[in-house]
Amino acid sequence: MSTISPLAFVHPEAKIGENVTISPFAYIDRDVEIGDGCHIRPHVSILSGARIGRNNYFYDGCIVSATPQDFRWKGEDSYVEIGDNTTIREHVIINRSIHRDGVTRIGNDSFVMAQSHVGHDTEIGNSVVIGNSVKIAGSCRIGDCSILSSCALVHEKCEVGEWVLVKGGCRVTGNVPPYVVMAHNPISYFGVNAYILRKNGFSEETIDDIAKCYRHIYQSNTSAFNAMVRVKADVAPGTERDAIVRFVEGHNFKIAALALDSML
């Protein structure tokens, strides 16, 4: 049975699951779906178009499915989807899509820290950590298991691969391939995300292969095209090597901190 404070506003058309807690002064709009086991603290606003899974926790003052901060949006109905077991901390703002029936999406088991902003049409994967005051612009993609440290900025239409660590305060202005650490401003390659990979069961052989790939990409003073030729010749096919190759070959513009255009 759900617990809904009489001091909260819940629109009669909203769909509320079982065992949901809605605290005083929360606002639940029309066309909202909230799954079982969610906890919504005071002054949270969950607005039209929110589609929320199970066992999510929303802290004070966050706004989910806010209308887009983009002049291209003309009032179309659109959505924010949040998976299961995700935490949204204080004063986070998540904007819905600018496109009719479009979606801004956050996956399962993620953690979005206080005062962060997720722009329209952005997709955040599973088990992602978004640090305090991170700002993610519209139409970005953040891969599974990545960490954006506090005050990082991600510019519009950038993609960050899986298992990436972006250090605090970095400005991400291009695409960041998987398994790396990025640091400094202007942002630059800082190494392989080896500590996190080891903690999550990646073998030393796999981490070494990842490091070989990035020596060719970032440290060989050659084009991305030639780097890919070297990676394919030097590193045996495998899940991680293939993911790196797909990412670089799939982006026809500059990879973040890569001095040479991809030429692919």
Describe the structure.
The protein is α/β, with parallel strands linked by helices and 264 residues long. It is built from 4 helices and 28 strands. It has helices at residues 194-199, 204-218, 224-234, 239-249, and strands spanning 3-4, 9-10, 15-16, 21-22, 27-28, 33-34, 39-40, 45-46, 50-52, 57-58, 63-66, 79-82, 87-88, 93-95, 103-106, 111-112, 117-118, 123-124, 129-130, 135-136, 141-142, 147-148, 153-154, 159-160, 165-166, 171-172, 180-183, 188-192. The strands form 3 sheets. The chain has an 11-stranded mixed β-sheet with strand order 1-4-7-10-13-16-19-22-25-27-28. Strands 2-5-8-11-14-17-20-23-26 form a 9-stranded parallel β-sheet, with no helix packed on it. Helix 3 (224-234) packs antiparallel against helix 4. The N and C termini lie far apart (56 Å). The model is unreliable at 256-264 (pLDDT under 50).
What's the count of strands?
Answer: 28
| Strand portion | 25-35%
The low-confidence runs, each spanning 5 or more residues with pLDDT under 50, are 256-264
Percent helix range: 10-25%
Q: Please, how many helices? A: 4
Mean pLDDT: 94
Distance between the termini: 56 Å
Please identify the structural class as seen in this structure: alpha/beta
Task: Please state the overall shape, judged from the principal axes of the Cα atoms.
Answer: elongated
Strands ordered across the widest β-sheet: 1-4-7-10-13-16-19-22-25-27-28
Gyration radius from CA atoms, angstroms: 20 Å
Q: List the quaternary state of the chains.
A: single chain
Describe the largest sheet. 11 strands, mixed
